[in-house]
Amino acid sequence: MYKIVEKRILNPEVKLMRVEAPLVAAKAKPGQFVIIRVDEKAERIPLTIAETIRDKGLVTIIFQEVGVSTKKLGALDEGDCILDFSGPLGKPSELDGLKKVCVIGGGLGCAIAWPQAKYLFDSGASVDIIAGFRNRDLVILEEEMRKCSDRLHIMTDDGSYGEKGLVTHKLSELLESGEAYDAVIAIGPLVMMKFVSQTTRPYGIKTIVSMNPIMIDGTGMCGGCRLTVGGEVRFACVDGPDFDGHLVDFDEAIRRSAMYREDEKKAIAAHECRLGGGAMNA
Amino acid sequence: MPNMSPKKVRMREQDPDVRRRNFEEVACGYSPEEAMEEAGRCLHCKNRPCVSGCPVAVNIPEFIAEISNGNFGKAYQIIRQTNSLPAVCGRVCPQETQCESLCVRGKKGEPVAIGRLERFAADYAMNSGSPDEAATLDDTQQIRKNGIKVGIIGAGPAGLTCAGDLALMGYDVTIFEALHEPGGVLVYGIPEFRLPKAIVRREIEYLSKLGVKIQCNFIVGKTMTVDELFEAGYSALFIGSGAGLPKFMGIPGENLNGVYSANEFLTRINLMNAYNEEYDTPIKTFGRVAVVGGGNVAMDAARCAKRIGAKEVYIIYRRGMDEMPARREEIHHAQEEGIIFRLLANPVKILGTEDGWVRGIQCVEMELGEPDSSGRRRPVPKKDSEFTIELDGVIMALGTSPNPLIKSTTEGLRTNRHGCIEVDEETMMTSRPGVFAGGDAVTGAATVILAMGAGKKAARAINDYILATGK
């Protein structure tokens, strides 16, 4: 059992939890993930590690409540326990040696863009962050990101905060103005990562994306997380989760991410029905 | 006077029309009367040919003699002396190619049903409770703990067996398991209707009573490396991490929605209970689905697909029925349950809809040519024989290879070109001193009992190593 020692609500959809998992905290590096199972009946779900506090043995996860299992997770409070919490899984991001980097986070993706930027900034690299959100209410980790960047550009779809526009608009602007990045690191929705990769391609800038497909075990056993990268099948769990954005078949990844969308809708309806029923009985 | 019936006493099974809609066990086991009658068929040969066919050398004639005398608890204890998972082996061992293939009674008629009798003794002991408790108490009282720490990587058949034997020798044993539940292939792979999970749990509880510690959610190579475990005070390690990596064919369409590896399909159903609505893990139930492959895993996947609601389930296999590696019993059960066999057929392409879901599979007919290195006749494609089956799901059951996680994080651990860990056949030691290995991680995908045999041999070798080096 893994105890939740801190819970914060970052925005109406996104929560942060700090969990006691000393073995994971001792080893985790930026880019790695954990697989958690909230309770006996929950799914195994992969969550990228947002932060580790090694001396306290804590691992921070930041998640959006999209399915039944993440809703169950979000319903837990400080002092409650997560049944299973295993990791760190996947390969750490290859960040060493980068001098000037643009880190792009889309929505929840900022939860992972943040530790990457922090690692780079702390190791002396020049870091620009572009963080995109749908609107002002959904902005997360602004202070944290500001502290680990030379420049932070916040973009919102509706212009209610920061600048109006998509992250790719800002990226194009920076690239056109002559910013010469060693690498662009993009973490967010598949569509965003696809278009970031398209934007950097003509400039030949190394573009690293973090893939988060459906998986069960996280150790290479199920093959559910397979992707096509440079024409070859790769498993995100053991070969990734970071890949060269110019080589990933995003259209296939987008399609595969929809495999259980219908099942998910039904499951959420059933879950909420159960919760509603419980409330009425109470 | 032995029972001279040429046939085994029949074991009751669930009716195929009923069982293809549930996950309850197919084979119902012997009653005490049936077991005693079958045990009466054993001739108690002096040279015990059956024992030499058993990878863990169960004292077969001795336990059968106890069953025929009605001493079921004693029979169980005799099996336990050499086999730490009797209820599992009685169900999933391929007895027809091992002990039973050497039974003298098999020369004229059917061999003694050794597997069924082993299962009977184990189930009887578990259900009645007392013989199991007695055996445990007996075992634990005899253990003299030596305090030497040995780590076991992987809680599958090889690791569990190795752990059990080492615990009985007095070692302080910890098993590290990557998943959230111990059992390995016994819990994620083999379905409930062939091996009820409650039985696996009981066998594992027995290990806990012997003092074996099991740490789940611990991925050796990630959570801690082999070297870090040595630093943490382990004197020796046994790698029994299995062959968990699924193979794909490399044909177009394999990444379409609706294509599973058998590993994923079975893990969702078995480990994650996706067939039970109370559990959150989703699974595609499919209308028409094909399983590609001819091994036991293919049969398991096909029979699971039927049980979760598929209307038509095909097995597509590139050779003929005689060449199928699956056990005859499993093929027979699959046929009874209405699985359709498309033999001498090989997929060349999975066809997809515009939005990326499986709509069919294109195959080519095969014929058998000259024998290949495996001794089986090699299948070759027939010209202009392509045909298509309309489907909405495909499950690839083409075999598995060892997981490279430990190899890639352990310096100096040698593997062969298939990724299998190399060991000295006598000592079971790898290229790293103090690191032993066995089971599918060494042999590639094989059987539960062979893995157990390897775990047993490694336990003895680890003991010898520790005594010799004084570690």
Structure commentary:
The complex is a heterodimer of chains A (282) and B (471). In chain A, 30% of the residues lie in helices and 32% in strands. Chain A has helices at residues 22-27, 68-75, 110-122, 142-147, 167-176, 190-200, 236-239, 250-256, 261-281, and strands spanning 2-11, 14-20, 33-37, 45-53, 58-64, 81-82, 84-89, 100-106, 126-133, 151-156, 163-164, 183-187, 206-210, 226-229, 232-235, 242-244. In chain A, the strands form 3 sheets. In chain A, strands 6-1-2-5-4-3-7 form a 7-stranded antiparallel sheet. Chain A has a 7-stranded mixed sheet with strand order 11-10-9-8-12-13-16, sandwiched between helices. In chain A, strands 14-15 form a two-stranded antiparallel sheet. The longest helix of chain A has 21 residues, at 261-281. Chain B has a 5-stranded parallel sheet. In chain B, strands 8-15-9-10-11 form a 5-stranded parallel sheet. Chain B has 3 domains: 16-134, Fumarate Reductase Iron-sulfur Protein, Chain B, domain 2; 149-243 and 401-469, FAD/NAD(P)-binding domain (3-Layer(bba) Sandwich); 248-396, FAD/NAD(P)-binding domain. Chain B has helices at 16-19, 32-39, 49-52, 60-68, 72-82, 86-92, 114-128, 130-142, 157-168, 185-188, 197-209, 226-231, 262-270, 296-307, 328-336, 405-409, 440-443, 448-469; strands at 12-13, 27-29, 149-153, 172-176, 213-215, 236-239, 245-246, 259-261, 288-292, 312-316, 340-342, 345-352, 358-371, 377-390, 393-396, 400-401, 435-437. Chain B has 18 helices and 17 strands. In chain B, α4 (60-68) packs across α7 (114-128), α5 (72-82) packs across α7 and α9 (157-168) packs across α18. Chain B is an alpha/beta fold. Helices cover 35% and strands 18% of the residues of chain B.
